[in-house]
Structures are given as C-alpha cells and as structure tokens.
Design goal:
This protein has seven helices and ten strands. By secondary structure, it is α/β, with parallel strands linked by helices. The strands form two sheets. A six-stranded mixed β-sheet has the order 6-7-8-3-9-10, with helices on both faces. Helix 3 packs across helix 4, helix 3 runs parallel beside helix 5 and helix 4 packs across helix 5.
Length: 247
C-alpha cells in the first residue's frame, strides 16, 4: 500500500539508546535534560513516548533522528551509530531512513502538496523524475488526497495538511517514522483518523515512535515509554498488569 515495507532489515532493533545524556549550557551553568536514558525499539514496533512538557521527550526524538547529538551515550538507529557519523553523513542517512511528522505540519507554503511530497526524493536523489511524481501521487492517493495534489497547503484543512505530511514522510520509504505531537494541532476526530493511518503503517511493517500528550491515543499504542525529569519512569506494553493509564 505505502511501499516495500516488508523488506528484510539486517538489524533486530530499529532504535538502541544506551546511557544517553543530553545537557545544554544556560548562562554560566548547565541543564541536563536527559539523564542516562536506555531503551531499545524492535523493528516493526509502535511506541508512544509520553510525559510532562519540558521533560526531554522532543530532545530524545532529536537524538534518534540525528538532528542533535547526545552529550554522552550511544544512539544506534537502523543499525548505524549516529555518534560516529559526520553532519553530511547524518543528512544522507536521515533522508533514507527516517520520516519525521511534526505537530505544525511544516509544509513549504509556496509548493503544492504534490511538490512537498516530491521534495524528499529530490534531496535524496532517489528515483527518476517520472518515478518521483508517480510515487508522490500514489502516496497522496493512499492518504486520500489525490484530488488535492495541486493545491497549496494554505488551501486545505489542517487534517489534510497532516496527511500530506505523512505522505511526505513516506516518500523515500524509510523504515522508521517519528512523530513529534503529530495529532497535537488536530481536532479529536481528525487525530483519530491520523492515528489509524499510523497503525496501518505499522501493520505493514514500519516502525513508529510517537511523542504525544493525547492520553487516549497513547493508551491505544502497544507500548508506552514515559519520561519524567529526564529519566524513563515507565516502559509498559498494552495488557500488562501495570499498563499505562495516564500521568
């Protein structure tokens, strides 16, 4: 439906985080946001990351996507140790391996939905020009936006922009999808539709990490990792006796 999602990967864990620390300089001092976090995500898992605001969830996603680097510890994603890669190597790796979905969509306003979806393929120099357009149209059709392909983002609803953003995240057929509050700017019905789309992607073989404040959606994800004060305070699977019910 969305791509070659059942391809064989030569790694068991799509994400391996080991003793990750992240500190930022603030004035003359230092603030530690992540305090020795360790966890693994198996290939094909759907994991929700929850916790109070300002406790390190988005910082962790930045480590996993190679947007930022840890102060200490190892981040291994799709079998690659991101700490050992140059910025150029990280950019190339990210384009092939990670699809990122943001709360505020981050669509380029001067480009049509179709052009926005084509853009990651242009950056990765993946597929021929004809194939890029065909693939982008297929992805937009799959998320129910084929008839909106030539419209600018400002001409469609927030829910439609987020579905286009998901199509864009899938452009290069990455094994890992990462959502940072991907339903946070949507009404409850549209958020539900987007969540169902994520679930379908995982069923088809994608791995998914989703930071969310939506407790009802988080409880429906098979695994919930809670971060409080820079540490993992809960890591539970659905159906366990102590399964997460909200913070």
């Amino acid at each position: 439906m969305f791509g070659n999602n059942n391809k064989h990967h030569d790694y068991e864990y799509v994400v391996q985080i080991k003793d990750v620390v992240k500190s930022f300089k603030v004035g003359d001092g230092e603030v530690t946001i992540l305090k020795g976090i360790s966890f693994d995500v198996k290939d094909g898992e759907f994991v929700s990351i929850v916790g109070p605001s300002g406790n390190g969830k988005s910082t962790l996603l930045n480590m996993i996507t190679g947007i930022d680097r840890p102060s200490d510890g190892d981040v291994v994603v799709t079998g690659r140790n991101l700490n050992k890669m140059s910025e150029n190597q990280l950019a190339a790796w990210r384009g092939e391996n990670v699809g990122i979905i943001f709360q505020f969509f981050q669509m380029l306003p001067a480009l049509s939905l179709l052009q926005n979806v084509i853009l990651p393929m242009d950056f990765a120099n993946k597929y021929s020009s004809k194939e890029r357009r065909e693939r982008a149209m297929h992805l937009l059709e799959t998320v129910g936006l084929a008839d909106q392909a030539d419209k600018l983002p400002s001409m469609v609803s927030g829910g439609q922009q987020q579905r286009a953003a998901i199509a864009r995240a899938l452009a290069n057929d990455p094994p890992l999808l990462v959502g940072d509050e991907p339903t946070g700017n949507l009404d409850s019905r549209t958020a539900q539709d987007v969540f169902e789309l994520f679930s379908k992607l995982v069923e088809e073989g994608k791995s998914m990490l989703m930071v969310t404040h939506d407790k009802e959606l988080a409880k429906r994800v098979p695994r919930v990792v809670e971060i409080t004060n820079g540490k993992i305070t809960r890591d539970e699977y659905a159906g366990s006796k102590t399964a997460w019910t909200g913070y």
